Amino acid sequence: NLPIERIWVEVNSRVNYPLKEALVEMDNTLQIDMENDAFKFCVSEVSCRVANYGLNVVISSWNQHPISGRGVPSTIKERTNRLQPLNVNDIPEPLEAKQMYETIYLGRLTEESHFGIDPLVGFEELINQRENSFQAVHQIPTIFNHLVNGNQAPFKTAISDFIQITSNLTAF
């Protein structure tokens, strides 16, 4: 197995599966309306925040754990890394890099898209107000820690609250 294959198992078990389990349960019990674009955005926003935090935790843990017969990944990297920093002028702009990838390597990239629609787009004050209201009550590290330890309630509450805060700031 390649290291990435071993890491992916950890990411799935520690991040993806707990999130998916909670989201599927919320959908099956009609706690979220995934036909509503504003709800989709709210569910996606909270889920991505928790997933990003969780991924960083898994990567950090992985880089610090000892591998039998090899050592600790972060220590191995320090000892064996002979890479030199790239000159900024040698790196193409994103659009140019995309075109090169598609024409030279005949590759295809998936365009970035949003899941759902944020009804507050264009209203920075309202977005800031939503963010402040949400963060006053919910901390992503706490939500993640509960979720991976089998307690879905804080995650579900965070999603419901994000939907409610958004709803209070605008009419869906």
Brief summary of the model shown:
Residues 3-68 form the Integrase core domain. The chain is mostly helical and 172 residues long.
Structural class: mainly alpha
Radius of gyration: 20 Å
Shape: globular
- Round the mean pLDDT to the nearest integer and report it: 90
Q: Note the total helix count.
A: 7
Q: How far apart are the termini?
A: 48 Å
Q: How many structural domains? A: 1
Number of extended strands: 0
Unreliable residue runs: none
| String of helices and strands | HHHHHHH
Protein name: Integrase core domain-containing protein
InterPro entries: Integrase_dom_put (IPR058913)
Pfam family, one: rva_4
Domain Integrase core: 3-68
Keywords summarizing the entry:
Integrase_dom_put; 66% helix; mainly alpha; Integrase core domain-containing protein; single chain; 172 residues; globular; 7 helices
Helices and strands in order, then pairings?
Elements: H1 3-28, H2 37-64, H3 73-80, H4 94-104, H5 124-137, H6 140-148, H7 153-169
Helix pairs in contact: 1-2, 2-6, 2-7, 5-7, 6-7
Q: Explain this structure to me?
A:
- With 172 residues, the chain is mainly α.
- The protein has one domain (3-74, 121-170).
- The chain contains seven helices and no strands.
- The chain has helices spanning 3-28, 37-64, 73-80, 94-104, 124-137, 140-148, 153-169.
- Helix 1 (3-28) runs antiparallel to helix 2 (37-64), helix 5 runs antiparallel to helix 7 and helix 6 runs antiparallel to helix 7 (153-169).
- The longest helix is centred in the first third of the chain and has 28 residues, at 37-64.
- The radius of gyration is 20 Å and the shape is globular.
- It starts with a helix and ends with a helix.
